[in-house]
Amino acid sequence: MLPLLADHVQSDTAFLRLALAQSLLRSEQTRRYTWIMAARFEALRQRGSELFGREESRFALQLQHDPQGALDMALRNWQLQRAPWDARVVLEAALAANQPEAAAPVLEFLQKVQLEDPIIEPLARQLGAALHKSAGAGK
């Protein structure tokens, strides 16, 4: 994957994928890529762009190891974009932040549209079970 992305580093989304790949490979370059990606997101914020919330949430969760920050970004993004990837980042961040209740609107949406996705479905089941468990504990 790295060679495929190397020619596209001008794209923020491609660069994020490269940074995530570096992290998964436990590369010595991970810190450098993370720093550069953080600077790119800061530049986007300064320009007032809110179009990369999904990517910024993934960045916060997987590279900065900030589940709460990732969840906050994913939920803000969910108000603007509702593609399957947007649902996925909310679900992943809610699980990582141990806040299943934060994913309730996304779970309701997924049930309403009957989305079938092999990655999203297990996340939704896990969060649904956690919500059910916490509702039962509150009785």
Structural class: mainly alpha
Rg of Cα set: 16 Å
What gross morphology would you assign?
A: globular
Q: Give the overall pLDDT as a whole number.
A: 90
What is the number of E strands?
Answer: 0
- Beta-strand residue percentage: under 5%
Largest sheet data = none
Summarize the structure.
By secondary structure, the chain is mainly α. The protein has helices at residues 2-6, 12-24, 30-46, 53-62, 67-78, 84-96, 104-113, 120-137.
Task: Describe the SSE topology.
Layout lengths: L1 H5 L5 H13 L5 H17 L6 H10 L4 H12 L5 H13 L7 H10 L6 H18 L2
Helix pairs in contact: 2-3, 4-5, 4-6, 5-6, 6-8
Report on the structure:
The chain has 139 residues and is mainly alpha-helical. Helices cover 71% and strands 0% of the residues. The longest helix has 18 residues, at 120-137. The mean pLDDT is 90.
Name a few traits of the molecule:
139 residues, mainly alpha, 8 helices, globular
